[in-house]
Structure formats: structure tokens, C-alpha cells
């Protein structure tokens, strides 16, 4: 397909249409991560209230949301028969033998993306810290954390146009295209940085704002009503988790549509489309080219 076919509005529309037409599959795939989200959030409260143990579940929950994102990619690009967590795990052990070169490429990807975020954040934080201390005011630990957070947000906003191009690598991972390189993604998305950024922005922001307002309102209600802490966990986290998974479904499908148009897929991929071609029967965990 020609790159000219990629349009922000059509990608967003395709994403919402796909979600509405595949609601049963959405609930099938979201059930496991949803239950685990609620379980660990409840466990976090139990440990702090009953045993005085602090256990931050943020990173654990992130694993569940990332897993859902990958299987939703597979739902969009490969179809329901390949969209399951067992197949996702199995793919990690198939599709090619281990090699130091492949390991090195994976590590290099992580280092490049991490450096693009961490180095500017450190530099910006140091500059802000010097300016703050130059005013003659000592900085508390809380203020230092807030400063680093603000610098991180600024860097994320500045670097986000580049990261959205590399985000298409997630679709390649879900497809099992292990040999896809950052350089290839960069070349294929040349000239579409702003369009990809706008697509991600439009897919992410409306639902995220609604979810944030809803969570804030529920937290305020819980804080002003006498309620057992476990009930409070349910009241706040059930809507928050569902809205998060909904947002991910929209963003992922829009991203997958961009991958289909800009990078290209094989015959039989994106089987929900009328122009998908003949269904493939080979092992999708293996690289086709």
C-alpha cells in the first residue's frame, strides 16, 4: 500500500471501528490483566494497612498493561486465533535460535531509547538545580523529586515525536518480525513524524483526560466517605483499569494501522480487512522476510 494512504483521521476511525466490532475479544483479552490489576492493588493496600509494608505495584501493573497491548496488536494484525497470552509467551521461545547478535541488537535498542530520555533529563535537571540553588534557597528532597519529574515530562514531550516513530517496533514484535531494525523503522516513517505524533496524541489524550477526571472524582468521593479500604480499591481501580485498557486498545490499533500502511504487512495479516488477502497458515512467530 502507498504511504500516501496513511491519514491520521482514517487511522483513528479504523481503531475505533475495530474496537467496536471486536468487543467480545476485548473483554476476553482484558479479563486476565484486569483481575491481576485489582488483585495487586488490593494486595498493596492489605500489606500497608495490616503489616505496615510498602509495596509499590506500579511496575507490576505496567507488565499487565504491556501484555494486553501486545496481544491486542496480534488481534488487529493476525486475528483472534493468534491473539492469546499463551501464544504470546510461546512466541518468545520460537522463531529462531538464540544468538549474541540478536541479543546485542535488543540491548542496543533499549540503550538508544533510554539514552534519548535519560541524558536530556539529567542535563535539564542539573541546569534547573543550579538555577534553583543560585537563588540561595536550599532544595528539599520533595522539591528535588518534583523537579526531576517536571524535567522528565518536558523531555518526554520534546522527544515524543521521535519515540512515536520507534513505537511501530511494538507492532513488529507482536507480528514476530524479529529482524526488524530501528533503522528500517526510521527509514519507512521518514516524513511522517508529525502525522504519527498527531495520531498518537488524538488516540491517547481524550480518553486519558476522561480517565484522569473520573479517577480524581472517585478518589475524592472515597476520601470523604467512610469505606473499607478494599472497597475503596474496587471503587477507584475498576473504572481506572477498564479506562486504561480501553485507551490502550485505541492507541494500539491506531499504531497497528499505521504500521500496516507505512511499514507493510504480509498477505493474510490484518484479517479483519476486506483487502487482507488469503489467510496464512504458517507459524506467524517466524520472520517471513
From TrEMBL:
Keywords associated with the record: Membrane, Transmembrane, Transmembrane helix
UniProt keyword annotation of Chaperone present: no
Keyword Lipid biosynthesis included in the entry's annotation: no
Superkingdom of this protein's organism: Bacteria
Transmembrane segments: 25-43, 55-73, 110-132, 152-175, 196-217, 229-254
Protein name: Glycerophosphoryl diester phosphodiesterase membrane domain-containing protein
Organism: Emcibacter nanhaiensis
Lineage: Bacteria, Pseudomonadati, Pseudomonadota, Alphaproteobacteria, Emcibacterales
Amino acid at each position: 500500500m502507498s504511504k500516501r494512504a496513511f491519514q491520521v483521521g482514517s487511522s483513528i476511525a479504523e481503531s475505533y471501528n475495530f474496537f467496536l466490532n471486536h468487543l467480545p475479544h476485548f473483554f476476553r483479552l482484558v479479563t486476565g490483566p484486569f483481575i491481576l490489576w485489582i488483585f495487586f492493588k488490593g494486595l498493596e493496600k492489605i500489606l500497608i494497612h495490616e503489616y505496615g509494608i510498602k509495596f509499590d505495584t506500579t511496575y507490576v501493573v505496567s507488565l499487565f498493561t504491556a501484555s494486553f497491548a501486545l496481544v491486542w496488536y496480534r488481534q488487529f494484525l493476525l486475528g483472534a486465533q493468534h491473539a492469546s497470552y499463551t501464544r504470546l509467551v510461546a512466541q518468545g521461545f520460537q522463531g529462531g535460535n538464540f544468538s549474541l547478535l540478536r541479543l546485542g541488537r535488543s540491548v542496543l535498542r533499549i540503550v538508544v531509547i533510554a539514552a534519548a530520555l535519560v541524558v536530556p533529563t539529567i542535563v535539564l535537571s542539573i541546569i534547573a538545580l543550579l538555577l534553583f540553588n543560585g537563588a540561595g534557597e536550599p532544595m528539599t528532597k520533595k522539591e528535588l523529586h518534583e523537579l526531576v519529574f517536571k524535567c522528565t515530562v518536558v523531555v518526554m514531550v520534546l522527544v515524543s515525536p521521535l519515540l512515536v516513530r520507534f513505537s511501530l517496533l511494538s507492532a513488529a514484535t507482536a507480528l514476530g518480525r524479529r529482524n526488524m531494525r530501528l533503522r528500517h523503522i526510521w527509514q519507512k516513517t521518514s516524513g511522517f513524524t508529525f502525522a504519527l505524533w498527531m495520531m498518537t496524541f488524538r488516540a491517547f489524550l481524550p480518553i486519558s483526560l476522561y480517565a484522569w477526571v473520573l479517577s480524581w472524582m472517585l478518589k475524592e468521593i472515597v476520601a470523604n466517605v467512610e469505606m473499607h479500604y478494599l472497597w475503596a480499591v474496587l471503587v477507584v481501580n475498576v473504572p481506572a483499569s477498564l479506562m486504561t485498557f480501553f485507551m490502550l486498545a485505541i492507541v494500539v490499533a491506531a499504531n497497528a494501522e499505521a504500521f500496516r500502511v507505512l511499514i507493510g504487512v504480509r498477505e493474510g495479516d490484518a484479517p479483519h480487512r476486506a483487502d487482507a488477502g488469503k489467510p496464512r497458515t504458517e507459524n506467524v512467530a517466524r520472520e517471513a522476510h
